[in-house]
Amino acid sequence: METLALRVLRNEPGKFEELLSRQGSVLLNKDGKPFALAVDVAEASLEETLRLVMQVRAQLAVSQMRGEARARGLHKLTAVQVDKAVRSTRARRKA
After folding, report:
1. Cα distances (Å, whole numbers) of residue 43 to 8, 21, 47, 73
2. Distance between CA atoms of 88 and 85, rounded to whole angstroms?
3. Which of 45, 69, 79, 83 is positioned for an S-S bond with 74, CB 3.0–4.6 A?
4. What average pLDDT does the segment 54-60 reach?
């Protein structure tokens, strides 16, 4: 996948447009770090593309939460321990 500095997009939008048309997607970098992913979208498939992007973002969020839970050892909790933690948290929220 081609990468492009964000300043190139700002200063030379034609270069960005040409690269996106040719490659289908472009990774934008800001200060040398990934910033955004641009994807060429046909008008006819815009809604479907947006739906798929939102689905992937949700899957990534769930994966990240699972990784964090694993790192904290929470994956080892029993169902009884989880239920107790949920009841405790709900009780605090009601107070």
Report:
1. 25, 14, 8, 46
2. 5
3. 69
4. 96
